[in-house]
Amino acid sequence: MSLQRIVRVSLEHPTSAVCVAGVETLVDIYGSVPEGTEMFEVYGTPGVDIYVSPNMERGRERADTRRWRFDATLEIIVVMNSPSNDLNDSHVQISYHSSHKPLPLAYAVLYLTCVDISLDCDLNCEGRQDRNFVDKRQWVWGPSGYGGILLVNCDRDDPSCGVQDNCDQHVHCLQDLEDMSVMVLRTQGPAALFDDHKLVLHASSYDAKRAQVFHVCGPEDVCEAYRHVLGQDKVSYEVPRLHGDEERFFVEGLSFPDAGFTGLIFFHVTLLDDSNEDFSASPIFTDTVVFRVAPWIMTPSTLPPLEVYVCRVRNNTCFVDAVAELARKAGCKLTICPQAENRNDRWIQDEMELGYIQAPHKTLPVVFDSPRNGELQDFPYKRILGPDFGYVTREPRDRSVSGLDSFGNLEVSPPVVANGKEYPLGRILIGGNLPGSSGRRVTQVVRDFLHAQKVQPPVELFVDWLAVGHVDEFLSFVPAPDGKGFRMLLASPGACFKLFQEKQKCGHGRALLFQGVVDDEQVKTISINQVLSNKDLINYNKFVQSCIDWNREVLKRELGLAECDIIDIPQLFKTERKKATAFFPDLVNMLVLGKHLGIPKPFGPIINGCCCLEEKVRSLLEPLGLHCTFIDDFTPYHMLHGEVHCGTNVRRKPFSFKWWNMVP
Q1: Residue 125 designated active-site
Q2: Any catalytic annotation for residue 258?
Q3: Structural domains in the chain?
Q4: What molecular function does GO assign, one term (predicted)?
Q5: Could you say which of 120, 157, 472, 633 is catalytic?
Q6: Helix, strand, coil proportions of the chain in percent (round to 5)?
Q7: Does residue 646 carry a catalytic annotation?
């Protein structure tokens, strides 16, 4: 219980006060005391519990057990647990005594009216609305935690509306309410009390910029019944008692957690005494609830696929057909962005990242639009944003972005345990430069956003050695049937040289790379012997291997991985303007659809009728129950420094684990 306020009694006339059920009221009996007072007694009518607290060490005792020596350090505490039926229907009586007088020197009477006021929401994420078992002013993480959850209402449930649902102060369709959280104000007590008392719902100006509230002021099946009462420019609202004992509110988030915003939003309801016309209203009691805005969550490639996205451009018909066939095998939907919309920008992985937000009552997919703003820049907002599909973006104010701000440079690991800490939703992986160097990094506003979500703490890897500079150029994750549940694939020049050396020893040194490439006028074949005798290529790939090894150690440490969790995929790189690009199609830059993998066709050396690179990759991945399909992306993607993963995107099934059950 928390102390409510101090009420002073008077000998001259009875005093009346309002108390709130379950909340302690201090009664001051010392302001008007008859001369000669040495002791006092205090009694209450049924339903009024009275305690005397002699000092902090002794705690409190029931007041009606004995006569008390008059001492100004004593505290008298009154508690009522049930609301009154009528005004002033309970009272406390204090009698003042002297050892020299047989009768009381005087009496003081305090008349009480009890009202029960509670501002409630779904506190424990299990649908239970029980205000007594937790402190509603706190939000606690973990499986035994509690606290309300808000979704940022960032979808567009009414297609005829030109903006996201939370961009104005109206409810445009009833489906919009499904994305909001319910908050309930309950009051019990004499109706006459509210003739000169009022209830005010309020929030700080800081919180009002990050959430807004609608009051149900009519039939719930009519959009116009939902009145915007808090949020943006409104910080307080006098609540009319339209529905008797219970008023319902719908709350929506306006902002995701970000730099300077932890995600916590507080709403308060205050009972004000407005009975004195000569004074401003005075507060009697405040109840508070806290919500946490649900974080945006990424989905790793090991989660089941639901929908595949790909762009159709002027020279990728065969590629789109191959992706469509892979999606069919995996049993997921295919969405093709036509050339009229993509304007020949094929890099749909770089344009957006598909994730979700979740509350106990609703899970909402949300697309994170990258700040790269190529020709695809309108696709996420115009084509993906819609009913039950939200949208968020972050752009630097000066609009200065680099290639690292494309979302091929934004990945997430499967769930891991590292250094004794569990990451049940995995960890975000972004690429940057070496610590202390002045190379390229992801723009600050994107990094701030990712860190603020808390549930997938980012790990920054070293990618500035790459020309494009994306983490998906040297790593990916695939599902595995064992307890770990996945394997991390790393591009490995060392593994490629080892494979080529083995083939050379077996007499296949003349076998050629790049045979069968359609656009063979721009691509010259090269033999294994030529590769292994090219000192510049070998030395450069030693440098590349050192960069990947740096990341390998970071990933092992930050994701809690052992060597047995990592598979080295043969890959070579070449230098362009002192940065690395794939020498042949980058095998780890693959599309993962459950057990079906769409892997860039490497056009490696053909030995005994088979590409030895494809054969090696199959030998590494098929024992995990995976099915490898090699897709020719050479001309439409590889020649432009991208591969299969760069040219596709996937919406996946959310985690079964609920984010609020973790401890960041």
Answers
A1: no
A2: no
A3: 5-116 (2.60.40.1860), 122-293 (2.60.40.1700), 297-661 (3.75.10.10)
A4: calcium ion binding
A5: 472
A6: 20, 35, 45
A7: yes
